[in-house]
């Protein structure tokens, strides 16, 4: 069974326009990259594409009516994840008072999930130092037992 992440099903995972160049910048890029920018009415963009495999010039030609230059950077932006045993993941609490917020990195690795993990680690630190549980309620955590409000920047 083929799924959308398979390289034979979709040519790319994501595509985004990073910047629309001014005429002056477009000419600069073309001078630097030895390209011919004859149709100055057409907007020139810098575009980023993530794909399961390196896209050929023919594949890119199907996406763009005109392409002046291509820079390729090959790396595994979207690795294929395989199921793992729970025991394969490192623990969040390594020792008394020692926490590993990004222990889930083998499972998912994004800045957003790192931020959530760090917030959870901060709650564990408060619990370790004070012995009190911390609940996140409203615009910040409060101590469950004392209801004393704490200010947190997130």
Automatic annotation (TrEMBL):
**An annotated Gene Ontology molecular function:** prenylcysteine oxidase activity
Pfam families registered for this protein in UniProt = Prenylcys_lyase
What keyword terms does UniProt attach to this protein? FAD, Flavoprotein, Glycoprotein, Oxidoreductase
**Every Prenylcysteine lyase domain range:** 39-133
Q: Required co-factor? A: FAD
GO biological process per UniProt: prenylated protein catabolic process; prenylcysteine catabolic process
Q: What is this protein called?
A: Prenylcysteine lyase domain-containing protein
The scientific name of the source species is Dispira parvispora
């Amino acid at each position: 069974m083929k799924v959308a992440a398979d390289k034979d099903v979709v040519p790319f995972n994501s595509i985004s326009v990073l910047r629309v160049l001014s005429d002056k910048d477009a000419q600069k890029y073309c001078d630097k990259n030895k390209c011919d920018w004859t149709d100055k009415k057409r907007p020139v963009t810098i575009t980023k594409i993530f794909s399961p495999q390196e896209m050929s010039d023919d594949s890119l030609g199907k996406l763009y009516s005109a392409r002046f230059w291509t820079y390729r950077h090959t790396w595994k932006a979207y690795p294929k994840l395989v199921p793992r045993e729970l025991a394969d993941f490192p623990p969040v609490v390594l020792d008394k008072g020692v926490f590993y917020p990004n222990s889930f990195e083998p499972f998912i690795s994004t800045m957003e999930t790192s931020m959530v993990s760090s917030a959870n680690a901060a709650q564990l630190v408060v619990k370790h130092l004070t012995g009190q549980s911390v609940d996140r309620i409203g615009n910040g955590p409060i101590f469950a037992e004392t209801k004393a409000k704490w200010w947190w920047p997130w």
